[in-house]
Amino acid sequence: GLEEGAKNQFSTFSNFITTINQKKEGIGNRNSPTQLVIPNIKNGRDLPALCLDVRQKKRMSMDTLPQELKAPIPPEPSLPIRTKTVKDFQDDMEKSKASGDWKAVHNFYSTTFDSFLEINAAFKKDTNSPFNTIEDSGIDANFVNVVYDALLNTPQDVQKSVLKGIINGLLQEWTGPRTKDDLRAYCILLQNPQFSNTSTYVIYAHLLRQIAALTEADHHFLVHWSKKISQKRFKQVVDRLLQFISLRLFPAKPEEFPPMVKCTWWIPSATKVLSLFNAANSLISPPIISYTDFYNSTLDHIDLMEEYHNWQCYGNSHRFSFCQYPFIISIAAKKVIIQRDSEQQMISIARQSLVDKVSRRQKPDMNMLFLNVKVRRTHLVSDSLDELARKKADLKKKLKVTFVGEAGLDMGGLTKEWFLLLIRQIFHPDYGMFTYHKDSQCHWFSSFKCDNYSEFRLVGALMGLAVYNSITLDIRFPPCCYKKLLSPPIVPCDHNALVGICGVTLDDLFQIMPELAHGLSELLSYEGNVEEDFYSTFQVFQEEFGVIKSYNLKPNGDKIPVTNRNRKEYVQLYVDFLLNRSIYKQFAAFYYGFHSVCASYALLLLRPEEVEILVCGSPELDMSALQRSTQYEGYQKTDLTIRYFWDVVLGFSLDLQKKLLHFATGSDRVPVGGMADLNFKISRSETSTNWLPVAHTCFNQLCLPPYKNKKELRQKLIIGISNAEGFGLE
Description:
One of its GO terms (molecular function) is ubiquitin protein ligase activity. Pathway: Protein modification; protein ubiquitination. This protein is of the alpha/beta class. It has 27 helices and ten strands. The longest helix is centred in the middle third of the chain and has 29 residues, at about 330-360.
């Protein structure tokens, strides 16, 4: 934003805009989407539908564009000759600051931003080159950055001249498709730091509207050019767009903006432009900024279910919904949507059960409103499998667990204990369903063939039930697993369609089997003769129950040598075999189990990383937040033992903090809602201070004896959390 002394410098800007507008009265229809629409003009036309189907997430390339998008490239008009360099500009700035005479700087800014042609003349690296490819925008980024960095330190009249020039450019009468020079100008104008100030939002809105209304082919260029912007500038543009949306939704001073009914196109335009930057961010690995930097937490405070229902009912018609652009919705907001959608499904199914019972003149039973799971501790997996298989129709009801032969009502503790015990047993190496990889500290599906994959379906259903019932699971799957789980996000109607198959790369394999992936990477970079030195074919070997089995990666693969020319194909087929083909039946069962519980269009809103956070929680720990939200039983937060405890915990290393969280809650991850959602409680234990702390993971409760000093508390706590394997159930 502007400096403190310049906050009100555009206070008379509406009058200034009106003056400019009056000078342009002869230009076309006022309601044209490419004209600057002044706030006091009535019946401003809404922005046409701009949203691509959320299911079509892949950005088109120029080669695959439909014929109607391949408009002939209009000839670029000749540009004025401008010779000022970065050093010339910096010298002018220094002279102006020293002398107080800003004439030279004023002339530069007013000339440069007076039209799109002038913007290109100033900032194009070579005015004689067309720069009409996606690889190079032709923009002198360093010069643009220097000019914008200096702009906010210039007098008000200089800054106003820039805005006046931008208005002139936006008011230009367009008579055909945009040239690449026009797109360059749009790309440069988006980086203008003046648009952080709400006084400029009317102009900013019209700039965004014009960019949003460009053709798909033009958007394609802007996406590829935007990914070349530096991380700092890229983040600034994204933050500016998010702030624009937030302040239009909840203005601090409503009188600063036109009435919402007259500018309904502001938010759709900004969101569409933001989607271009999201697409650019997704094209680079690693991305320029985190996907979470596109979240707009302001949306957590709007009626999300109305947005969701609009999206469900109207899809991608003319009715705008933020759900058409799920990247902008935070994981907390998505969790709310999924939970409420789940609750509505639960209520609907429970109501139908009640109606069926009454229609048969049977006495209603409250148990029919829940998914009641009764299991024996000694037969935990088999009983759970039988229960879930028998009660497929009830999977979307609220879960209640009963352990046979044990008294007690399930108020949430028994459900969590059931998940903890079941997950621990299923993922035990002796069970053989999953292989634990020590290097990556994660589990992966065993490729052993068997006659029945129902237990994999059980694990999928467990994950679905955990999401459905807001339980965080202590599961370690690699990110690739969640990518496969959303392939596709909606179960296909065709039962013969492949599920759980996604594009996989060597990076995915690195996250599971880093040593093998490193070996394949070495093969790709090997400078010698691959065929003679490695003597490999398109055939791989796997051990299954002590027997070595061979598999061809392609037809007659055992007869095709791996060479320098085909090694890329070999590596890709090998990775696909390990992560897709060899475990297809296991993962398909797992996929169907998860979606038998979580089948919802809300899954279309999620990224794979977000599914992982919903299932397993976030790895980001904030122990200060945990301290603020902790409840006490038998202690006060001012008691000496509690003060000792937090002094010790806040001083722990990250590894010890994770061990403490795992000790007390059964997982070292944090729920989507943050530490407050853990409902963590510290209770006073009346046992001897010689005893170690005790945890009830089902209730996220830590029982702490009143240790006499900080040293003793630290010693006993570290011993307890470092030797906490197993449950005291006997």
